[in-house]
Write a sequence for this structure.
């Protein structure tokens, strides 16, 4: 009973602190996710120690990651990715390459080995889909063409992030894989993809159609189905030696059209809850004292800012959107969920030193804050963008 009471108290502290800091950051015209991250740092084991159960924190973070990646997969359309136009490909390649090289340079300048530098580059080069989309909706100010290019680039970045996440366990070995190990990795990957394709293209659509066409409204069935799909493939992915989030993402990716919208609608309430818990739990795992080591954090933050902004500006220029290059660069600046996920996986598997996690926290905090402050002058004079997002479409069709 004492343990149960302790968990309830900690959940109450998490919810209350997240609400308080979310309201404060909202009033300051800053992203609420930034407030949730700071809330976690304040109440966590490195702050006021109001929440100290690391296993509970880790479990909540893992659930949040799986649900987050499952929903990210649901929101992506692989056919749109394949049909991406030239300006999207040019912009995405330019900005991702520039920010990746900036992160790689940061790692090498710190004396990290190539493996660790590559993982740091992965942390640095991926923009936050959640924060950028929210910024586009709330602040706007960009043309429809620029907004769509940004959205397409975020899709490409998410796929790259999942690929990086999938190779982290292999990098953790620290040695070149033997032929047998490489073959085993390929076979396990093929089994995972095969299972997801069978479930996502044959089994899941039939079950979703049957439940969505019931004559009576059975929300519990749709909700439980949605949860089951994501976690079933997450468990299979983990059993086969891949990150659980990889399986959840791929499962979401193969569910398309109206079925994806049905699953998103059913899972949205719990997803929103765990998205908050995700950012708070990520904050609780960050040691704020690491921020004081400016000889390490400051050069990485500067390179992260310059790499993403410069790469986005250059990408916008060469893809014919030069007039909005500065605004596009500012929008693409925030890092977020994938930076934490990659850093956490790299730290847990031993693929990189443990300091990569607080470094990720510094990068997320700094880039999110800089982007938000740079956009404050636009808030009073700009209205939201005119194009409809997938969420708006879902709401209209419900």
């Amino acid at each position: 009973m004492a343990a149960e009471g302790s968990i309830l108290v900690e959940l109450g502290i998490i919810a209350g602190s997240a609400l308080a800091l979310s309201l404060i950051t909202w009033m300051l015209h800053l992203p609420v996710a930034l407030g949730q991250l700071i809330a976690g740092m304040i109440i966590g084991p490195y702050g006021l120690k109001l929440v100290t159960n690391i296993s509970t924190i880790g479990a909540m973070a893992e659930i949040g990651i799986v649900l987050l990646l499952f929903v990210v997969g649901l929101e992506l359309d692989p056919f749109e990715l394949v049909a991406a136009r030239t300006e999207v490909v040019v912009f995405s390649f330019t900005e991702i390459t520039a920010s990746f090289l900036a992160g790689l340079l940061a790692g090498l300048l710190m004396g990290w080995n190539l493996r660790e530098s590559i993982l740091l580059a992965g942390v640095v080069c991926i923009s936050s889909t959640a924060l950028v989309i929210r910024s586009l909706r709330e602040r706007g100010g960009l043309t429809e063409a620029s907004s769509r290019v940004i959205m397409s680039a975020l899709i490409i970045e998410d796929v790259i992030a999942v690929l990086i996440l999938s190779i982290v366990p292999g990098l953790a070995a620290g040695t070149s894989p033997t032929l047998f190990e490489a073959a085993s990795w390929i076979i396990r990957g093929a089994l995972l993809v095969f299972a997801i394709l069978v479930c996502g293209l044959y089994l899941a659509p039939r079950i979703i159609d049957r439940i969505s066409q019931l004559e009576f409204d059975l929300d519990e069935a749709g909700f439980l189905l949605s949860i089951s799909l994501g976690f079933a493939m997450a468990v299979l992915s983990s059993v086969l030696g891949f990150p659980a989030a990889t399986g959840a993402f791929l499962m979401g990716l193969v569910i398309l059209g109206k079925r994806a919208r049905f699953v998103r609608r059913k899972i949205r309430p719990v997803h929103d809850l765990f998205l908050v818990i995700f950012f708070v739990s990520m904050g609780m795992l960050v040691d704020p004292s690491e921020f004081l080591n400016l000889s390490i954090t400051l050069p990485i933050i500067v390179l992260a800012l310059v790499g993403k902004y410069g790469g986005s500006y250059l990408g916008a220029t060469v893809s014919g959107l030069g007039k909005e290059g500065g605004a596009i660069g500012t929008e693409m600046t925030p890092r977020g969920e994938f930076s934490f996920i990659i850093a956490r996986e790299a730290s847990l598997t031993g693929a990189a030193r443990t300091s990569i996690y607080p470094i990720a926290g510094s990068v997320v905090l700094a880039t999110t804050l800089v982007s938000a402050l740079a956009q404050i002058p636009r808030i009073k004079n700009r209205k939201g963008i005119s194009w409809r997002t997938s969420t708006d479409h879902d709401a209209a069709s419900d």
About this structure: The chain has one domain: 2-397. Residues 179-212 form the longest helix (34 residues). Residues 2-397 form a domain with the Na+/H+ antiporter like fold fold (CATH 1.20.1530.20). The CA atoms of residues 81 and 274 lie 27 Å apart.
